[in-house]
Task: structure prediction
Amino acid sequence: MRLRPEQLGKHLSADLKPAYLIAGDEPLQQQELLDDLRRAARDQGFDERHRFSSDTGIDWNALRNEAQSMSLFGGRRILELVLNGKRPDKNGSEILRELFAAPSPDTLLLINCSKLDRRKDWNSAWVKALDEIGAIIEVWPVEGNNLRNWLQDRLASRGLHASDDAMALLIERSEGNLLAAAQEVDKLSLLVENGQVSPEDVQQAVGDSSRYSPFDLTEATAQGDAHRVMHIIQTLRAEGVEPPVLLWALSRDIRMLDGMIAGGPPPRLPPQRARAMQAQAQRLNPQQIRAAQASAIRADQCVKGMSKGDPWQHITNLALRLAGKPLPRSMER
Result:
């Protein structure tokens, strides 16, 4: 069965499934879901815990032997399987399917891995087998309005309420780094006495914890979010990311958008990213794409020292053009 993260609390009020798979690339959410499962398991008598990790190499036969042997103390136990970005080989897949086919009421299998690939992982035999007898929970990055809602709930759980300005500042300072956002809320819970969080409180408690990659920049341009584009560029520059890395990512998007606007087949991208780029292609016209191509050329020449100017200014000009919010020509240099 499939569960959304917010459904787990209600689910844990009943008997546990034999196996759970927590998949995604958001460490904080994964860790908190696993903690909830461990607590619920302890409440139901699962006192032992054994861990198998891909970091040190998984002995699949040892996993099977552990699952099928009697508990050392005659109780119930948790077997945790940490795959990270790796996946079971043929032998591992067969052993997992064997365990899922005859689950023991005294053994709980918790599996943690990176984001599931829609074509490869969801069609794999071991994931299908787990889906039949257990539960699969996928976690996704918390962004935009979802991040605002997440922060509001997190603050409320600490007895806090943030003003609109304080919330906007908290989001700007922590976007892209959910763990840091959770830590900042915990700091605020210690600093704020009356429960009302002001921008000054956030300024005092929070450093700029935003963490971005060049792909976050192209996502912001696809969404047409000029403010976020500027913030991501400033953050990446402060972190020492080189202009050629951003130019590569933006130029790749230009090529894809040019093909889409010309009527070519849509690029092979994750569904959410593909939808965002299709919306971006509908917003932009061929003239705007040509202007973006010209901006990319100027940026490339500047990066290579073939023309004067600030590479970061050219990168900013290009990104804002792709967002559909170009600077006035008088401000481009």
User: Anything to note?
Assistant: The chain has a mean pLDDT of 88.
